[in-house]
Amino acid sequence: MSNTAEIQCPRSVSEEDRARAQIYQLLGVLLVDTPSSELLQGLASLQGDETPLGSACKNLAALAERTNPYDAEREFNNLFVGLGRGELLPYASYYLTGFLNEKPLAELRTDLRTRGIKARSDVKEPEDHIGTLCEIMAGIITGEFPCDSGLPSQKAFFDAHLAKWAALFFTDLEEAQSAVFYAPVGSLGRAFMAVEADAFAIQ
After folding, report:
1. Which of 11-15, 89-93, 191-195 has the least mean pLDDT?
2. pTM attached to this predicted model
3. What is the pLDDT of residues 46-79, one digit of tens each?
4. With 60 as the cut, is the pLDDT of residue 7 above it?
5. By CB neighbour count within 10 A (0-12 exposed, 13-18 middle, 19+ buried), where does 179 fall?
6. What is the DSSP string of 154-172?
7. Is 196 helix (H, G, I), strand (E, B) or coil?
8. What is the pLDDT of residues 86-144, one digit of tens each?
9. Which of 17, 92, 131, 203 qualifies as a cystine partner to 104, CB 3.0-4.6 A?
C-alpha cells in the first residue's frame, strides 16, 4: 500500500463506502509505518464536525500541522517498536490471548486463504497487526481482492478479526504515555470502530 490517505477503487463503490475505505486505509498507513511529510501535510487539511469521528479528525489535523516527520517517527518507534518492544503490541493475538502468534493469527490466515488474499512479501509483521487488518478491510470494501466484497463479507471479516479487540487497542493508543500525534489517531480509530460496529449490527 502506498503512503497516502487515498485508495484507488478497482470497482464502482458508493461515496459512503469509498469514505469508509479511505479511513481504514489511513489508519492502516499510520499504524504500519511512520507518516511521510506529504501525509502529515495532507492530514493537516482534514475537516471535522461535532461528532466523535469529526472531532477526532479535527484534533488529528491540528496535531499533524505541528508535527514534523522526525518527531512522528520517534513517537511511532516508542509506541510500536522500542528496544525489544514498544509501549503497545498492536496484534489481535496479543489482545485476545496475551501472547503473540496464537490462535487468532491462525484463524486469520485460514480466512485470508479462503478469501484468496495473500500477504505481501515485503511485510515482515504477522498478519494480525492492526494496521494490516485495516488495510485488508479497505481492500475488501473496494473489491481489491478476489473475494466477495459485499456487506455480509465485510461484516464477517470485521466480526471475526476486529470487533473483539480493535476498539480496546485504539483506546490504549489514545491514552498511551508516548502518544502525542498518535493520540488523535487512537481517537479516530476508536470512534470509527464504534460507527462500523453499529452499522454492521443492523445488517
Report:
1. 11-15
2. 0.92
3. 999 999 999 999 999 999 999 999 999 999 999 9
4. no
5. buried
6. HHHHHHHHTTTTHHHHHHH
7. helix
8. 999 999 999 999 999 999 999 999 999 999 999 877 778 899 999 999 999 999 999 99
9. 92
Q: How many residues does the structure list for the chain?
A: 203
For cell 490466515, the residue is 109
For the record, the C-alpha cell of 1 comes out as: 500500500
Fill in the DSSP letter of residue 14: -
Tell me if 88 sits within 8 A of 79, measured CB to CB: yes
In DSSP terms, 91 is beta-bridged to 129
Q: How far apart are CA 164 and CA 172, in angstroms?
A: 14
Cα end-to-end span (Å), the chain: 29
Query: In whole angstroms, what is the distance from residue 75 CA to residue 170 CA?
Result: 16
Within 10 A of 168 (CB to CB), how many other CB atoms are there? 13
CB 186 within 8 A of CB 172: yes
3-state SS track over 87-108 = CCCCEHHHHHHCCCCCHHHHHH
Name every residue whose Cβ is closer than 8 Å to that of residue 53 and which is 6 or more positions away in sequence: 188, 191, 192, 195
User: What per-residue confidence (pLDDT) applies to 143?
Assistant: 95
Phi/psi of residue 96, nearest 5 degrees: -95, -25
Burial group, residue 177, by CB count within 10 angstroms (0-12, 13-18, 19+): exposed
